[in-house]
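Q: Study each token:
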Amino acid sequence: MSPSNTADNAAPAGPGFSMPAEWEPHEATWLGWPHEASDWPGKFTAIPWVYGEIVRKLAPGERVRILVRHRAEEKSARRLLTRAGCDLRKIQFVIHPTNRGWTRDSGPIFVRKAESGKRKAETAIVHFHFNGWAKYKNWRKDTRVPEIAARLLGKSLFHAEHRGHPFVMEGGGIEVNGRGTLLTTEECYLDRRMQARNPELGRKDIEAALKKYLGATTIFWLRRGIAGDDTHGHIDDLCRFVNPRTLVLVRETNRREANYRPLAENWERIGDLRLEDGARPEIMPLPMPAPLWFDGQRLPASYANFYIANAAVLVPTFNDPNDRVALGILSELFKDRPVVGVHAVDLVLGLGALHCLTQQEPR
């Protein structure tokens, strides 16, 4: 590796790096402090307090690294987090200008090489060249976050590219079990008409890049995402692994609802999934909340947008009867840490929830 910690052209999978599962031990969680009021029109004042609740639940189990734009924003965040009862000793503020706070998609995506003999385990960062979901224009500050993280942590940085082009991918667009299986959707990465991330690449190219940079060996494509999702089909509102052989898949039971047909098609497809060792996974249904609207806009409310932290599983809730059902299902699946609901009716106005805001840094 060069002195700048920028990796050479060798991809992570070559030297043995792969992306670990989210439930594996974290060193830290990355967040971007909220400041883009247009993401939450009319409700922005509530959003920093939601962050306070998130940080309060994360800090008992791991460090929380929070991106802030400047010292004044750090001071304001410290004051709010103190009032929210957060342990500031577990928080590290990282000063770097950002456009938005959706760290799952613009933040550092970590890969890890396992310990072997005298060689210690090692982590590195892959830069997937975030471009605002191929939709928004204000993203150029966000796309530098992986570089800032690599410099701060002294990690090697792999710049993802394929066939001579920067390879664009967001963390919310993929789901891994840490053993080689990766899930994504055709709507997000194969549609060349809307929000095309890599318009010059086809399915085989995208699969090759995911294998090369994340160490995946088995890639499975669902069809479409949920209504209201402005990312155009992110998997983290649909289908999530809860352990290497079990996943949850959202299901809509109301035949008149916009999500009914696309989610039913995903259920038909998932029957063909085989894990990296050829085994069938166990598939558990996760309900959907009733449609959530604000000022005439459909919001992408989904219980699948949970985040698995060291000390808890944080699940978005929506003042819906299915809140209790979803929390119960996930509590049965996660026996090793508490499952905690976080009120997300205000948060999801930003068109994302808990998983969209967070990015894990593996230990």
